[in-house]
Amino acid sequence: MRKLPLTQQNFTKAYTSVCHLCQQGATSPKYAENARVTIYGIDLRVGDLRQACIIHKTTVRKLARALQNDIVKVATIRMMEGNLSKLYKLENPNYNKQDLVWVSDFQTFNDNTAMPDHVRTWLLENYRNRFRPSSKVRNADIMED
Fold first, then answer.
1. How far apart are CA 106 and CA 69, in angstroms?
2. Residue 13 is assigned to a structural domain of this protein
3. Using the 8-state DSSP alphabet, how is residue 26 labeled?
4. How many CA atoms within 13 Å lie on the side-chain side of 108?
5. How far is residue 41 from each of residues 16, 22, 32, 61, 135, measured CA to CA in Å?
6. Where in the sequence is the domain holding 30, given as residue range(s)?
7. In a domain, 2, yes or no
8. Is the whole model's pTM more than 0.85, yes or no?
9. How far lies 12's CA from each of 58, 60, 131, in Å?
C-alpha cells in the first residue's frame, strides 16, 4: 500500500474507500483478501484494511459499526447496495431501491432513525435466522437424550 501525503483531501478519499469496502462486504472474514476498491485515485485492498485494523487492535466489523452512519451517507451518494442486498431482494421482490444502502450485516443494530422500520425488522430477523441453531443440531440433541 503506497503512502499518501497527509492532506484533508487524501484523508477523505481514503475514508470513503474504507466505507466502500465495508459496504461491499469486507466485514466478513470470508471476503477475499485481494478484493479491492479503486476510486478517487486510491487503490485499497481488503487485506490492507484488515492489516490496519489489526495494528490498531480492532476488526473491520467493529470499524464498520463505528462508521455505520457515514457508510450509509457514502452508499447513498454512490448508490451502493449493502452486502445483504441480494438476499433482501429475493425476500422482498417489491423492494425500494433506497432501502438497499441499509442492508449490510453491520447495520443490524444501528439505531439511526433514518433507517426504515421494515429494513430494521428484516435485518434483525435475518440476524436471528443466521445465528439460530439449525434444526439438524437440535434434532441430534433430542436423539441423544
1. 11
2. yes
3. I
4. 16
5. 11, 18, 21, 25, 48
6. 8-144
7. no
8. no
9. 21, 18, 35
Per-residue pLDDT of the chain (145 residues; tens, 9 = 90+): 567 778 888 888 889 999 999 999 999 989 999 898 988 788 899 999 999 999 999 999 999 999 999 999 999 999 999 999 999 999 999 999 999 999 999 999 999 999 999 999 999 999 999 887 665 544 444 444 4
61: how many CB neighbours lie within 10 A of its CB? 16
Count: domains in the chain: 1
Q: Is residue 69 part of a domain?
A: yes
Is the distance from CB of 118 to CB of 139 less than 8 angstroms? no
Within-domain flag for 82: yes
Quote the CA–CA distance of 119 and 102 in Å, as a whole number. 7
Look at residue 18 in the predicted model and tell me its pLDDT.
95
E strand spans, 1-145 = 36-39, 42-45
CA dihedral sign of residues 119, 68, 62, 22: positive
